[in-house]
Amino acid sequence: MIMFSQKAKKHADACRYCWMCRHLCPIGLKTGKEINTPRAKGLLVAMNERGFPMDSSAAEAMYECLLCGLCTNDCVTGFDPLIFIREARTEAVVNNLVPPYVRKVIDRILETGNPFGLPAKKKWDALKDEVATLPDQADVLLYVGNTAAYRTPEIAKAVMSLLKKAGISFTVLQNELSSGIELGDLIGFVEEVRTMAKACAAAINKIGPKTVVVLDTYDAACFKHEYQEWNCKIEADVVTATAFIAELVRNSKLVIEKRNTVVTYHDSARLARDLGEHEPARELIAATGATLKEMFLNRRLAKCCGSELVNQYRPDLTRLTAESRWEDAIRTGAKALITACPQAYDVLAKAIPTEMELIDLFRLLDESTNQDK
Fold it and tell me: Which strands, in side-by-side order, build the sheet including 336-339?
């Protein structure tokens, strides 16, 4: 029988079957499968503790989850499925119950440091011209992350351009290591993940920056929260790219040209819930002169559109969740959806409706500034 911690069992038993999470879960809403609801996953854990061991189908269900935390955010009983879902994934690895398509992604991360299975030495290939001109050390370190470096380098280029236009001396890690969050989301926060995190923190601390600007919201949440618990603290202020650039605009380091557009904005789950950051992106949208029409589920209640990690092993699920978020955007009457997270952008880009436009906030800002670099 698989053994869960007392903490995980407590949270699995905390469910009062009020069904509210059933109406919130992005995957459960789109698949219509009871097994995809948080309460059902809690029942699987409870069954395991009562003599019904987890099998491969139960393990598979544990990976049909975005770990977006919307169920936890809206639960009045303190029910936190993410705790026992991560533990269930750990147990699935230990007991060789991991679905083969998930195992492939785990192996890619262990071999290359990224879920795409691309060589680590090629991380800066699409950004080599930008990186080549950067100093070895600076007070500001930009942590780009795997998705922006490998999948959406145009977003990373825009952030670098904005920093240069604002006169910020910054650098990147020539050998940028994974934060560990991708592996942690797949196998739980076990020692292999903490070892990866400690190596990343040590590499950042060796550069000695005063500020670490983090582009990917998943990395930012990990640096801010898990790193503190894992005793691998980054010896610098860690800020999100949205918060840092909003401060530059606030201090007139960047002057944004006004545009007369109507847009809506998608809150990244890790940014909006894990970090509780809602306003910097909205300040930046306002700075462009755009009229913002909010989706019904926004800020802490924002519906997750999917993640790059889940997209690597179940692209069918992320397409469904992306389509669902586009439906929310269309209902606002806006013709453009703005994101401020590389993962959200890449997932949403796979399901853009013909009548809508997808806009990355950093690229929009870069295109709206004329300062000399």
Answer: 291-292, 262-265, 336-339, 357-360
Better-scored residue on pLDDT, 10 or 34: 34
Residues 233-266 have pLDDT tens digits of 999 999 999 999 999 999 999 999 998 899 999 9
**Coil, strand or helix: which one is 142?**
strand
- Decide: 346 and 147 in contact? Cβ < 8 Å: yes
pLDDT at site 16: 61
Strand partners, 358: 337
What lies within 8 Å, CB to CB, of 33 at 6+ separation is none
Contact 371, 252 (CB under 8 A): no
Nearest-angstrom CA–CA distance, 318 and 322: 6
**Whole-number CA gyration radius for the chain:** 20
- Inter-axis angle of helices 38-49 and 81-94, nearest 10: 50
Query: What's the N-to-C CA distance of the chain in angstroms?
Result: 60
For residue 35, give the DSSP letter. Answer: G
- Compute the distance between CA of residue 341 and CA of residue 217 in angstroms, rounded to an integer: 6
Q: How confident is the model at residue 15 (pLDDT cuts 50, 70, 90)?
A: low
Distance CA 320, CA 228 (A): 34
Residue positions counted in the chain: 373
A 10 A CB-CB count for 13 gives: 13
Q: Could you tell me which of 257, 253, 187, 196 has the C-alpha nearest to residue 223?
A: 196
- Is the pLDDT reported for residue 202 higher than 80? yes
Output the six-digit token pair for 18.
């009020």
Q: Give 60's Cβ-side CA count (13 Å radius).
A: 9
Which residues have C-beta within 8 Å of that of residue 61, sequence separation ≥ 6? 35, 36, 40, 41, 44
C-alpha 273: how far from chain center: 11
pLDDT tens readout for residues 309-345: 999 999 999 999 999 999 999 999 999 999 999 999 9
Q: Is the pTM of this model over 0.70?
A: yes
Report the C-alpha gap between 341 and 337 in whole angstroms.
12
Q: Residue 53 contacts by C-beta under 8 Å, 6 or more apart in sequence?
A: 1, 2
pLDDT of residue 316: 95
